[in-house]
């Protein structure tokens, strides 16, 4: 082989190796991203918990650089809080934060169900019913992460049926926040409510009774917000040290 040919082939080979390395790195980052997201939605990571680059790199057997990129991505998605010179932390939303996001969801989703009520096609209703069946299957199989993802997906599917890409993107951002809040604070026993209430909502959407459907979605979101807020308030409570030790210090 001539020297000229060698000179022309080597850059191509280097580019191929570089492309393969980039694809492998992206695959690692996607794996780490999916695992951390799953842990968040499963309620395994608690509010305020720090996520250290070194520990995660060791756990996932990858570089700290890959972990750093994933943490930055999760921060941009609102799933983690990134603090300069301190690192990444599981969000600790305030009660006000929680109420603000649920208020936005109510305002938007009331309009969505009002638009769709009595106007959905047979195909659209079938898609919604199939989605609820998947929610129920995930719940009965005790797959917490899948239950959380499908619960949020139901509301995204309703929004998609309105036909506005901008509206869907906005609602998906709100859903992502409330999914996280629910995973952080809502007790596991309350997951069952989502598929049951979603099935009832699908039935209501078949009718032209707009106000009844609006009342249903409002109550649905109100109930979830109330439970999440109650748990968030409990998490913020500081134990009364005097009360803890008072009983033991009393003289007989």
**Biggest sheet strand line-up:** 1-3-2
Note the beta-strand portion: under 5%
| CATH-derived topology of the largest domain | Four Helix Bundle (Hemerythrin (Met), subunit A)
**What is the straight-line distance between the termini?**
100 Å
Mean pLDDT: 87
- Biggest β-sheet: count, sense, barrel? 3 strands, antiparallel
DSSP helix count? Answer: 10
The CATH H-level homologous superfamily of the largest domain: GntR ligand-binding domain-like
Identify the CATH architecture of the largest domain: Up-down Bundle
Helicity range of the residues? Answer: over 70%
The total number of structural domains is 2
- What structural class is derived from the secondary structure elements? mainly alpha
User: Uncertain spans, ≥5 residues at pLDDT below 50?
Assistant: none
How does the overall form come out from the CA principal axes? globular
The gyration radius over C-alpha positions equals 24 Å
Number of strands: 3
Listing every helix as H and every strand as E from the N terminus to the C terminus, the arrangement reads: HEHHEEHHHHHHH
């Amino acid at each position: 082989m001539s020297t000229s040919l060698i000179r022309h082939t080597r850059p191509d080979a280097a580019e191929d190796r570089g492309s393969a390395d980039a694809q492998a790195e992206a695959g690692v980052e996607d794996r780490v991203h999916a695992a951390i997201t799953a842990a968040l939605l499963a309620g395994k990571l608690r509010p305020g918990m720090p996520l250290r680059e070194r520990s995660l790199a060791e756990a996932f057997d990858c570089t700290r650089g890959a972990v750093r990129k994933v943490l930055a991505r999760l921060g941009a998605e609102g799933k983690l809080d990134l603090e300069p010179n301190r690192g990444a932390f599981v969000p600790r939303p305030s009660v006000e934060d929680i109420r603000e996001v649920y208020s936005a969801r109510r305002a938007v989703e009331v309009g969505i169900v009002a638009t769709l009520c009595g106007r959905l096609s047979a195909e659209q209703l079938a898609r919604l019913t199939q989605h609820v069946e998947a929610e129920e299957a995930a719940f009965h199989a005790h797959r917490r992460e899948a239950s959380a993802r499908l619960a949020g997906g139901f509301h995204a599917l309703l929004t998609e049926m309105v036909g506005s890409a901008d509206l869907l993107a906005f609602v998906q951002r709100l859903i992502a926040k409330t999914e996280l809040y629910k995973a952080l604070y809502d007790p596991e026993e309350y997951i069952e409510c989502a598929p049951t209430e979603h099935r009832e909502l699908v039935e209501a959407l078949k009718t032209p009774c707009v106000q009844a459907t609006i009342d249903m979605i409002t109550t649905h979101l109100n109930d979830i917000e109330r439970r999440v807020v109650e748990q968030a308030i409990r998490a913020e409570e500081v134990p009364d040290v005097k009360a803890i030790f008072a009983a033991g210090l009393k003289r007989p």
